[in-house]
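On clarity, I found the account of how folds are encoded harder to follow than it need be. What matters is that the chain and its backbone geometry are given together, residue for residue. I therefore recommend that a typical entry be quoted early in the introduction. An entry of this sort, consisting of the sequence and the corresponding backbone structure tokens, reads as follows:
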Amino acid sequence: MTRHYDLHSHSLASDGTLSPTELVKWAANAGVDVLALTDHDETGGIVEASAAARAEGIVLVPGVEISVTWQKQTVHIVGLHINIESSPLQQGLARLREFRCWRAEEMGHRLAKHGIHGAWEAAQRLAHGRIISRTHFAHFLVEQGRARTVRDVFKTYLKPNKPGYVPGEWASLEEVVGWIRDAGGQAVLAHPARYAMTATRRRKLIAEFVELGGEGLEVVSGSHSRGDNFSMAQLARYFGLKASAGSDFHGPENPWVMLGRLEPLPDGCVPIWADWSI
């Protein structure tokens, strides 16, 4: 029997809009057999999601998506099959959450200087977990009629050189891969085609990731085109990385990225789940 995997998703514990239980139910209804919950810098939804997965008869992979600053650029690393009790991992995530809190306040200050008041307070209201993200600010700005969609908000307010942008100062690539490996997990470079970088720079990033112990590349992603999938598959094969697949689902209000709605891995890829015992 062919299993359907979706190894990148978010809940209310970070910047998703469904509770962990609701997320698992959406996944089950979408035909997902194996789901990874990978909230941003946060594992607080894993216990609830695991219980819901048992009730729904699907497999829940404990995961996390960790923010990295690599050569002054933000990239994301997904950790799969992590031990959420790992002290190095939790200490590292706590440090990143502290920075997120400061960044959220600073974003509020910068938006206020441009006549948009109450953004930080609104983002706090919209954030149900310990994470206040740019997505929460984006939802507020849509509510205020400042833009039609979350995507439009990012383009107009939250990207570099825009009113509400605050640069990230995240963990190093070496730190994050180390935290994931210490937690018994597999490190996967998330949505690699999405980063604004040259092909040469992307290959340099992947080479360093591999050297540090990274194991997987998110070949199929909700933010990739079909052409991106094939290009990333070539990179995975070249660097000897296993291929992962994840929608990066945040909620049903974003119909262009839905749980389980993923292209198959291109031929020649070794799935990240090839050796899993589940």
The mean pLDDT is 94.
